[in-house]
Amino acid sequence: MSTASPARSGEWVLGRVGGAPVVVAPTSLLLGLLIAASWYPVVSSVLSPSGTFIVLGTVVGTVLGVAASILAHELAHGLSGTLLGRRPVRYELHLLGGRTSFGPTNAWAPWRDVVTSLAGPATNALIWAGTNRLLDSVVLPVPMWVAVWAISWVNLALAIFNALPGLPLDGGHALASLITQVTGRRRLGEQVAAWGGLLVVAGMAWLWVLRPLVLDGQQPSTFNLILVVMVDWSIGSTCWGVLGLGRGARAAAALDLRDLARPVAAVDTAMPVARVRELLESGTALVLVSQAGQVLGAIDAIDLDTLGLADETAATAGQVCTVVPAAAFSTQLTGQGAAAALKRARGVSRWLVLLEAGRLTGAVPTGAR
What we know:
- With 369 residues, this protein is of the alpha/beta class.
- Helices cover 56% and strands 15% of the residues.
- The chain is built from twelve helices and ten strands.
- It has helices spanning 28-47, 52-84, 110-137, 142-162, 170-183, 186-214, 222-242, 247-253, 273-281, 301-307, 317-320, 335-346, and strands spanning 12-17, 20-24, 88-94, 97-102, 264-268, 286-291, 294-299, 329-330, 351-356, 359-365.
- The strands form three sheets. It has a four-stranded mixed β-sheet. Strands 5-6-7 form a three-stranded mixed β-sheet.
- Strand 5, helix 9 and strand 6 form a beta-alpha-beta unit.
- The longest helix has 33 residues, at 52-84.
């Protein structure tokens, strides 16, 4: 089954790829400004005889090239997922790079996550190799050479960093999925990858902050400090939660959504609304309406009462169902992942639909109205 994921308020939609929106979060502008601010002095020192306009153009070109590289990284995740049987529903560029969201699927083995996760870093490695070849084989104008050189090395950095074996990096997801595939223990995979993420946090703090202070006696650059704080906070908080450290995290680690689930039913679009009401009155909490394996929407008792149809035998489920956002589905049923899924769903749906081994297993009320 698959779902659509609309853009959210305040985001800019660049277009759609395979039906999935490509959106830019406002926070991505800050990343662009950080790159521009750190790159401008270098470009200015190299191209100062060419004039301010050329320097600014080179900086802007570099920022756009980096953005295109991040987008290519995310599209590679989406393409590999599509080829393996899981369609992407949303591509996003944000402050710390990008993210690709996938819809639910009927069958998805952990090894497929390994391939999908590593497709992004592999794409950046290919871009690095291609741009290096371009620099070696083609004589470019100096400003263009500077921009391509910078984009090349940024892609190498993206490939290496994202392949590191720690959550929430691609390498961490690949490691967790690989351990799950070999041992059948998803929780073990997540824990190992979370410890890997904490090692990444410690490594970044040492390389860019502590080593300059302790070994070199130098003040870390402002750019490095900002970057380390942003990235380490994101990685550290994710891993901290996965490992269940802290009181709130320990409570989330004990969560099992299956204990809270209520019955769901999947029906065809042609089913009369009167029959849907019978299902809801017999104990079904949520009715999912699908066609050719694709979820078109859902109906619950509140939906039917709000509609107030005079003749429920004349209308069909496909005519009255409401769209279910991708965030209202979760394959993570326990622990911190389940708690995060419930939190995301609360903002968009009254229900969080649970999927286990590709099967609908129930729906949990989110508390939203």
